[in-house]
Amino acid sequence: MRVVVQSLLGFTLLGSSLLLSHTVSAEPTQTTAATAQATTATPPSPSNQAITPPKPSIISAGASANSSVQNQTQTQENKPLTAEQIAKEKASQDAKVKAMVKDQATRLQQLEKANLDALTQNQELQLKNDNLGVQVQVLQSEQSAQMFLYGAATIAVGVMLGFLIASYIYTKRRRQW
C-alpha cells in the first residue's frame, strides 16, 4: 500500500512538473526547483522512518529534462521532411553503416592476427612444458639412482665395519684363553 501511495505521489509530481514546464517556458529551472523544494518539505510519516523514502526531486528533474527533449523531437517530427533532407539522412546513415563495416573488418583482422599469435605462443608453451616434463622425469630417475648408490655404499661400509669389529672381538677372545 505504501509503495502504491509513493508511486502515485511521484506520478502526480511528474505530471505537475510537466504541466508547469509547458505553461512556464521562460523559467523551467525554477519550476523544477520549486517542485524539488515542495517534495523535500513534506515530513515523512512515522511508519516510513525505517524505510528510506524515494527521491522525487531527482525524478522530477529527470522528467523535466526528458520532457524538453521529447518536445524538441516532436516539433522536428511534426515538420515534413523534404526529399533532399531524406536523401541526406539516408546518405549519412549509409556512410555510418560503411564506417561501421570497415571498423568491424579491421577489428576482425586484428582479432585473427591476435588469435594466430596466441595459437603459436600456445604451441611453444606446450613444447616447453613437454620438455620440462621430460627433464623432471630424468632428474627423478637420477635422484632415485643416486639414493640407491648411497644405500649400497652405506650397506657396504656397514658390512666392512661389521667384519672389522667382529674380527677384533674374535682376536681379543683368543688372547684371553
Q: How are the SSEs ordered, and which strands pair?
A:
Layout: H1 2-23, H2 28-41, H3 56-78, H4 83-176
Helix pairs in contact: 1-2, 1-3, 2-3
Largest sheet: none
- Rg from Cα: 45 Å
Number of H- or I-type helical stretches? 4
**Helix proportion:** over 70%
Strand content: under 5%
Distance between the termini: 117 Å
Order of helices and strands: HHHH
Described by the principal axes of the CA atoms, the overall outline is: elongated
Supply the helix-strand structural class. Answer: mainly alpha
Average pLDDT, all residues = 75
Low confidence ranges: 23-49, 56-63
Could you give the count of β-strands? Answer: 0
Could you list some keywords that capture this structure?
elongated; 0% strand; 177 residues; 86% helix; 4 helices; mainly alpha
